[in-house]
Specification:
This protein has about 325 residues and is an alpha/beta fold. The protein is built from 13 helices and 10 strands. The protein has one domain (about 5-210, about 260-295): NADP-dependent oxidoreductase domain (TIM Barrel, Alpha-Beta Barrel).
Length: about 325
């Protein structure tokens, strides 16, 4: 599988999101997904202390076992629900506690990619970055990353790290897919280019919309994630316009002997800023499908036609 870089780290262009571990999947099911991913050539594993209240990290660490050095472990801290009352998610005190807790749960001596999960409005970004730089200097963390940052926050973090000569965020992980392109318009991708920060998109399949399992005017299948989610939350991802756009893209794929999943991954991989496309999986066969999905080399004509189909413009 193709590899790309996050700072000094070399990661597979398709990564595994471990958000299902400890929530939808038990430990044995999680291990089966991890082993299938390793066998399929996936080397980048993204988890967080908030996933399953720490169980995702525990399950991942135990599943990797002796294969730990063959992969890049990425985890995140700073989700408010994991922070004790009276402590700020981005504070140096919590940074130090969070990394030690994640190291223990993951059963490892270092975290390859340690990411701020959400910006903390009550803590200056430079305080968080200073504490993170200390972790890099101590050898507990190899590279730093961020998630859900705005363009202004990316710029501010990069400027502080450069001025102070300290370790900075090498990546930003925000929502991005062929159907959800906010980062193209809110300055995030532009800030990444200017500051030498790579991009890690999450929800590349839009919670299954880009697998073709949903149909315009029909209820979500009972076994789908959208059907299980709170309706208000599901509405952030699913609407008739998106489902109709996915149906148009599916015809485009079928005419070329490809699948909608291949388009979803390959479209993101066509962006040079993208380091790894992370997607969750609940079964080994899903992992194998995702691992092989980023190999479609889309031409400029293909990309222009995809844009037209997403917009719903007439030929």
């Amino acid at each position: 599988m193709e590899t790309r870089s996050i700072g000094s780290l070399h990661v597979s262009v398709v990564g595994l999101g471990c958000n299902n571990f400890g929530m939808l999947l038990d430990e044995n099911e999680s291990a089966a997904v991890v082993h299938a991913a390793i066998d399929a050539g996936i080397t980048y594993y993204d988890t967080a202390d908030a996933y399953g209240a720490g169980r995702s990290e525990e399950f991942l660490g135990r599943a990797l076992g002796a294969r730990r050095d063959a992969v890049v472990i990425a985890t995140k801290f700073g989700a408010a629900g994991m922070v004790p009352d009276g402590m700020r998610p981005g504070s140096p005190q919590w940074v130090r506690r969070a990394v030690d807790a994640s190291l223990q749960r993951l059963a490892t001596d270092r975290i390859d990619h340690f990411q701020l999960h959400y910006p903390d409005p009550d803590t200056p970004l430079e305080e968080t970055l200073s504490a993170l730089d200390d972790l890099v200097r101590a050898g507990k963390v190899r590279e730093l990353g961020s998630s859900n940052l705005s363009a202004a926050q990316i710029d501010a973090g990069a400027a502080w790290s450069a001025t102070e000569g300290r370790a900075g965020f090498r990546s930003v992980q925000n929502r991005y897919s062929v159907l959800h392109r906010a980062v193209e318009h809110d300055g995030v991708l532009d800030s990444c280019r200017v500051n030498g920060v790579v991009f890690v998109p999450y929800f590349p399949l839009e919670l299954g919309i880009l697998t073709g399992k949903y149909r315009p005017g029909q209820a979500a299948p009972d076994d789908s994630r959208l059907a299980r989610w709170d309706p208000k939350l599901a509405a952030r991802f699913s609407d008739d316009a998106k489902i109709a756009a996915a149906a148009r893209l599916e015809v485009f794929c079928r005419d070329r002997g490809r699948t909608l999943v291949e388009l979803a991954f390959s479209w993101l991989a066509a962006e040079s800023l993208v380091a790894s496309v992370i997607a969750g999986a609940t079964r080994p066969e899903q992992v194998r499908m995702n691992a092989s999905a980023a190999g479609w080399v889309l031409t400029k004509e293909d990309l222009a036609e995809i844009d037209r189909l997403v917009a719903g413009d007439a030929p």
